[in-house]
Design goal:
With 151 residues, the chain is of the alpha+beta class. The chain folds into two domains: 73 residues, Arc Repressor Mutant, subunit A (Orthogonal Bundle), CATH 1.10.10; 60 residues, 2-Layer Sandwich (Dna Ligase, domain 1). It contains six helices and five strands; from the N terminus they run ααααββββαβα. The termini are far apart.
Length: 151
């Protein structure tokens, strides 16, 4: 899936603001991240990018990811003892990592939760962003008792 023209313009503008230019490689990396929002590692981004442009190196992917983080188009997601993952969702949200599968999921943070998290900061402190991560396991889905009774 190619980037929409509006996404391509956003990429160019965001990079230009931090003194960088949009290259085909950076565009490809951004495209890979926008396409499948599963919080890939740099190595996973590299594998996906290589399927489209076989000559792209892992170093180029790392440099491209760094540029996209610097210009604010993606965020780094860190979990203890795990490779950094990358997220193109710029809305305020948390992340949940499943210990069983390693998958990472976005968790919406409603405005009232964001407000509360700002309010509980120590006196005299403020934050410009929040990084909140959950680590756990998915729970087995129980059958709906209403649906089971109808069977």
């Amino acid at each position: 899936m190619k980037l929409l023209e509006s996404e391509r313009r956003r990429l160019k503008t965001s990079l230009r603001k931090v003194g960088m230019r949009a290259t085909r490689q950076r565009e490809l990396i951004y495209e890979v991240l926008r396409e499948q929002r599963d919080h890939p590692t740099a190595e996973e981004v590299h594998l996906r990018a290589k399927q489209r442009r076989s000559g792209i190196s892992l170093a180029t992917v790392y440099n491209g990811l760094e540029a996209l983080v610097k210009c604010g188009l993606i965020k780094q997601v860190h979990f203890e003892r795990a490779s950094t993952r990358f997220c193109p969702n710029l809305e305020e949200h948390a992340h949940f990592q499943c210990e069983q599968t390693g998958e990472v999921f976005d968790v919406p943070l409603p405005c009232e939760v964001n407000r509360y998290l700002q309010e509980i900061l120590p006196k005299g402190f403020s934050s410009h962003s929040i990084s909140l991560s959950y680590v756990g396991q998915s729970q087995p889905t129980l059958p709906d008792p209403v649906l089971s009774a109808k069977s």
